[in-house]
Design a protein that fits this description.
Length: 307
């Protein structure tokens, strides 16, 4: 019990404390999360992705194994969620919203921060790769499910190509392939400063987003969606990690990222495609508030070598 408490204090309290700053900024000063989100999307996330790949010793083969493994993991979670939800007496809008919430996970704000705190810089690199793979699924399968198939997969995939993180990754691998092992100080220090600032800014943004949430309802669907996202998903990840022969930092990041709460993108998709916005909001809020408990247990199991 004492070890679990130590893990919670060391890994969760810093995350929750910085997120609380964002909540206070939203409620006291009415800071708009849209501006911070744009900064994160166009500047800080690409800098973090570039820095994580360029400065770490990771091969293209390792990148593809983790990236494709994450796609397979999310496909499996989505398929299992579909099977669970098809037996529920719910509306098509509720079905689409809950299904999206189970495979669109918060690998950025929450995931990258917690993986970094729990397992260090090497695991952080893999956490970024998993976040990027998760974003690929979120921006392709997410719109497809939310629109009930009205948005083609090609149209959905085109949205991925408009994501700056993709080009940051391409640049990082291109420089490594060209044998450029060190950038001029002005460039390297700029990218590193932006990357270092990205994690606290992600957590402030998370707080800004949480600051607008309201009281949840529809507890049956919330229980189902939360159980799939926070319990079933990491269990599936443990199986996938074994099949992929992931070890060390890659395994830790892969399994821990799988247990992250639902991402705010679920709500964005609900607004865009007119699915159930209130349910999306409630799923994000519920999984985010419960996840510190489940993630603490998951970190304990990983650090102890139990899973």
């Amino acid at each position: 019990m004492l070890e679990l408490l130590t893990i919670f204090v060391d890994n969760m309290i810093p995350v929750l404390a910085i997120a609380a700053v964002g909540v206070a900024l939203r409620r006291r000063l009415n800071v708009n999360p849209a501006m911070v989100s744009s900064m994160m999307f166009y500047v800080f996330s690409p800098a973090l992705a570039f820095d994580a790949i360029y400065r770490r010793d990771i091969s293209g083969g390792d990148f593809l194994r983790v990236y494709i493994g994450t796609l397979a993991l999310l496909a499996a979670i989505g398929a299992l969620s579909f099977l669970f939800l098809r037996w529920q007496r719910i509306s098509p809008r509720e079905f689409a919203t809950t299904l999206v919430s189970t495979f669109v996970f918060n690998g950025a704000n929450f995931g990258i921060s917690i993986v970094s705190f729990a397992f260090g810089a090497e695991a952080l690199t893999y956490a970024v790769i998993i976040y990027i793979a998760g974003s690929t699924v979120a921006w392709t399968l997410g719109p497809y499910v939310s629109s009930s198939g009205k948005a083609s997969m090609l149209q959905s995939f085109q949205s991925v190509l408009r994501t700056p993180v993709v080009y940051a990754l391409v640049l990082a691998f291109a420089l490594k392939a060209a044998g450029i092992e060190e950038l001029p100080p002005a460039l390297s220090r700029t990218s590193q400063l932006l990357a270092d600032a990205s994690i606290p800014l992600m957590l402030v943004l998370l707080g800004l987003q949480l600051g607008g949430f309201q009281k949840p309802d529809r507890w049956r669907l919330l229980l189902l969606g939360t159980t799939i996202r926070l319990v079933l998903a990491p269990l599936v990840a443990i199986v996938c990690a074994s099949l992929l022969n992931l070890e060390g930092a890659a395994r830790f990041a892969f399994i821990l990222q799988a247990g992250m709460p639902t991402a705010v993108l679920t709500l964005i998709l609900a607004y865009e495609f007119d699915t159930d916005r209130d349910l999306a909001l409630n799923l994000i809020m519920t999984t985010t508030l419960i996840s510190p408990i489940t993630l603490t247990l998951l970190i304990y199991l990983l650090q102890s070598g139990i899973v």
